[in-house]
Write a structure and sequence with these properties.
287 residues, alpha+beta, OB fold (Dihydrolipoamide Acetyltransferase, E2P), five-stranded mixed β-barrel, 16% helix, elongated, S1-like domain-containing RNA-binding protein, CvfB_S1_3rd
């Protein structure tokens, strides 16, 4: 196999000669440059060196002794280093040159494109000009690396990264190796491709895949609602003209809560001894 055919992969070459800016390596037929910035040690003529082959920004076939986890036909999680609304996002695969994940391979809506620091699961592809691009893993590839969840995992918290997103929902691969789906009704907003999320398992399917919710548990929501109400109360010096008999539309206008949610949160504040009601008003208890 020629050097050109090995672009995007690693191979072993021989040091042919040293220059002031690096080394020329050979397979016996073709030479390729190993720039001094792409290696961490020195070599002598005749040394065997394992390198990763790519095409540099000037269109030259180049080598690196930094061997990426990802290659043509091999997948890995890699970090987003930059974004370009016209081109796509750039990824750090472990060599000096970042690799492009093109706009055509990203979601239609740029609001859910990955941001710097997000992780995506990709492989490499080489176009007709021998330039390396990233390609997202398909659902089948994710399935092949996933492990099956069991009923014991039900209601457990999980973390993971979004590997596919759409209007109907988002697909996640968790730290445990579970393949999961987040229905649109179970996400406060659509997460980005590559975004790290934390949710809980709300169903375990027969095939071992999971359904995940990003919504807070009821008690967590109640805590947040109670905190919002108490902050408003204290902003009025500990007194507000709202109680559990207030009109639903008044509660909605002031707090953005349904009356039932307001009553639950207010009940929690009363149970915790933070407030009391008198007439149509609610007051903060003095310590």
């Amino acid at each position: 196999m020629s050097i050109q055919e090995l672009i995007g992969q690693s191979t072993e070459l021989t040091v042919a000669r040293k220059t002031t800016f690096g080394y020329f390596l050979t397979d016996g037929n073709e030479d390729v440059l190993l720039h001094i910035n792409e290696t961490h040690q020195e070599y002598e003529d005749g040394d065997q060196v394992e390198v990763f082959l790519y095409v540099d920004s000037q269109g030259r076939t180049s080598a690196s002794t930094y061997i990426p986890e990802v290659a043509v036909g091999r997948y890995a999680w890699v970090k987003v280093t930059d974004t370009n609304p016209e081109l796509g996002v750039f990824l750090d695969i472990g060599i000096k040159k970042d690799i492009l994940l093109g706009a055509d391979d990203l979601p239609v809506h740029k609001s859910v494109w990955p941001k710097i620091g997000d992780l995506v699961y990709i492989t490499l592809r080489v176009n007709r000009s021998n330039l390396i691009y990233a390609r997202l893993a398909s659902d089948q590839v994710i399935q092949s690396i996933s492990v099956k969840a069991t009923r014991e995992n039900f209601n457990k918290n999980v973390q993971g990264h979004i590997y596919r997103t759409a209007k109907v929902g988002s697909w996640v691969y968790t730290i445990e190796g579970f393949k999961g789906f987040i229905h649109e009704s179970q996400r406060p907003q659509e997460p980005r491709l590559g975004e790290k999320i934390e949710g809980r398992i709300i169903d375990v399917k027969e095939d071992g895949t999971i359904n995940v919710s990003l919504l807070a548990r009821k008690e967590e929501v109640q805590d947040l609602d109670a905190e919002q109400i108490f902050e408003y109360l204290m902003s009025r010096n500990g007194a507000m003209p709202y109680n559990d008999k207030s009109m639903p539309e008044d509660i909605q206008d002031r707090f953005g809560l349904s009356k039932s949610a307001f009553k639950r949160a207010l009940g929690k504040l009363m149970k915790d001894g933070k407030v009391y009601q008198e007439g149509s008003w609610t007051y903060a208890k003095k310590e």
